[in-house]
Amino acid sequence: MKLNISYPANGTQKLIEIEDDRKLRVFMDRRMGQEVAGDSVGDEFKGYVFRITGGNDKQGFPMKQGVMHPTRVRLLLGEGHSCYRPRRTGERKRKSVRGCIVAMDLSVLALSIIKPGDADIPGLTDTHHPKRLGPKRATKIRRFFGLSKEDDVSATPRSLYILFASLVSIICQNQWLRRD
Q: Can you tell me which family this protein belongs to (predicted)?
């Protein structure tokens, strides 16, 4: 089984293949959204805490949150549901999805790092990918920079400064303001 591990704090992700079923036993019969300690997966994950965010089975059917079943089921899905995009207004369709309970017939299990462990994982926790684009909407620009409602953000084109979390360096980008 493959583990697609993401680290949202750095904006990175890495795909790791684990052949040993005993290491994967900690994930079995767990549901999406539950937290799992990474100590039993391997020594390189000692101290890490993962959250199960999804996965696909061997035929490519995605896991769907809220379906309490370890196998595949057929659901009538419409607008607003995950795993389906309607082509027409009001269209609904019966689609095959996997339940949210982890089983051995998954090919990929998506995990997110909640708490980093003792050692860095190369390519995952040691690198940092900053946000490529800043916000366009005026209210989101105010929230991003901590501005008040009286501050003017309506200049178009707007020069945005993206501050890195740990660095003092500033990146300047020209973007157009979308709406207030």
A: Belongs to the eukaryotic ribosomal protein eS6 family.
DSSP E strands, 8-142: 12-17, 35-37, 49-57, 72-77, 93-98, 106-115
The values of phi and psi at residue 43, to 5°, are -70, -30
36 Cβ partners below 8 Å, 6+ apart?
A: 26, 27, 30, 49, 50, 51, 52, 111
| pLDDT tens track for 93-122 | 999 999 999 999 999 999 999 999 989 999
CA angle 127, 120, 107 (to 5 degrees): 85
Q: Which pLDDT does position 176 carry in this prediction?
A: 53
Distance separating alpha carbons of residues 85 and 93, to the nearest angstrom: 9
Summarised one tens digit per residue, pLDDT across range 133-143 is 777 787 887 88
Each residue of 129-152: b (16+ CB within 10 Å) or e? eeeeebbeebeebbebeeeeeeee
pLDDT at 37 over 50: yes
Whether the model clears a pTM of 0.85, i.e. scores above it, the answer is no
Cβ of 52: how many Cβ atoms within 10 Å?
Answer: 21
Say how far apart CA 124 and CA 133 lie, in whole Å. 21
